[in-house]
Amino acid sequence: MAKIITSLQNPLIKNVLLLCEKPRARKEQNRIVIEGLREIRLAMASGFTITDLFYSPELVSEHDLKALISHSNRTELAEITREVFNRMAYRNDTGGLIALAEPRRLHFNDLKLRERPLILVLETVEKPGNLGALLRTADAANLDAVIICDPQTDIYNPNAIRSGIGCVFTMPVVTATSEETISWMKATGIKMFGTALTATHHYHKTDFNQPAAIVMGSEANGLSKTWLDGADDLIKIPMMGKIDSMNVSASAAIVIFEAMRQRDFA
Questions:
Q1: Any idea what DSSP says for residue 253?
Q2: Residues 265, 263: Cα–Cα separation, whole Å
Q3: Does residue 9 sit in the same domain as residue 86?
Q4: 3-state SS, one letter per residue, for 63-114
Q5: What does the pLDDT read at residue 221?
Q6: pLDDT band at 194, cuts 50/70/90?
Q7: CA distance linking residue 32 with residue 34, whole number of Å
Q8: Nearest-CA neighbor of 97 among 121, 80, 111?
Q9: What is the pLDDT of residues 16-67, one digit of tens each?
Q10: Are both 96 and 113 inside the same structural domain?
Q11: Does residue 136 share a domain with residue 92?
Q12: What would the pLDDT profile of 67-116 be if each residue is shown by its tens digit?
């Protein structure tokens, strides 16, 4: 039977807001916040355990609510008012649903790579919005994995989940140091292509028909010396205008889909 919550001062509501705002709280409680029907469905389909489900009957359909409940008999239910939901929610179009779930922390040995894997590596990604956009691109290309090196933001930051429309649940995501990643890539036989303004090779003249990783640096600083020295090859996108760089998510999409074109999108 669901709890009924009508007050913004309820400890459960305050805790959800705390989890939204503080990565430390998410780590200590081993919980993440998922907002929206589509995102919750993706998490469930990928095997994430939903521990708590907050719903507003004024906003969510009975059909959708029953479907979620039927797939998760371990979930604690809490009915909330529209006012409480609007205080908890970041967006107005998320269908009256907010869930808490157990995060998943993958390691290299958890990855199931194809014979000719294509991987996206992100170094020191800082902005949750950029991370979400990059995960959407990775999902669209059906990459084997995304590896985030020396992360500056929590991969389960609610903004990253929202901007990625839940693709953090559809993609295998590993966090590691740059040194660990380079060592693993070399041992696995994956060629590392680092993107850098100082590169002399253009991305569209690069052979991606081999086990490959596309390595993107931060927008502010690009790739670190660790990656500039550790990558097998450095590549760049020709810039024809007045500026010398693009948003990292746009750059990644360009290079990834060139690799996919070379592979006949297979």
A1: H
A2: 5
A3: yes
A4: HHHHHHHHCCCCCEEEEECHHHHHHHCCCCCCCCEEEEECCCCECHHHCCCC
A5: 86
A6: very high
A7: 7
A8: 80
A9: 999 999 999 999 999 999 999 999 999 999 999 999 999 999 999 999 999 9
A10: no
A11: no
A12: 998 877 689 999 999 999 999 998 777 789 999 999 999 999 999 999 99
CA 233 to chain centre: 26
Which are the contacts of 173, defined by CB distance < 8 A and separation ≥ 6? 106, 135, 145, 146, 147, 148, 155
Whether residues 62 and 186 share a domain: the answer is no
pLDDT in tens, 175-186: 999 999 999 999
What CATH number is given to the structural domain containing 169? Answer: 3.40.1280.10
Contact 171, 135 (CB under 8 A): yes
Q: pLDDT tens digits, residue range 152-164?
A: 899 999 999 999 9
pLDDT score recorded for residue 90: 83
Which of the listed residues 101, 135, 170 is the one where a domain comes to its end?
101
* Tally of domains in the chain: 2
How far are the Cα atoms of 27, 117, 164, 215 from residue 158, in angstroms, in the given order? 13, 29, 10, 24
Q: Return the number of other C-beta atoms located less than 10 Å from residue 167's C-beta.
A: 24
DSSP state of 246: -
DSSP E strands in the chain: the ranges are: 3-5, 32-35, 50-55, 76-80, 97-101, 118-123, 145-149, 173-176, 191-195, 201-202, 212-216, 233-236
Q: Letter for the amino acid at 234?
A: L
Domain enclosing residue 14, as ranges: 3-101
Q: Which amino acid is at 60?
A: V
Residue 72 CB neighbours (<10 A): 18
Please identify, among 101, 119, 138, the residue that sits at the C-terminal boundary of a domain. 101
d(CA 215, CA 199): 13
- 255 and 132 housed in the same domain: yes
Q: Are residues 125 and 63 in the same domain?
A: no
CA 231 distance to own-chain centroid:
23
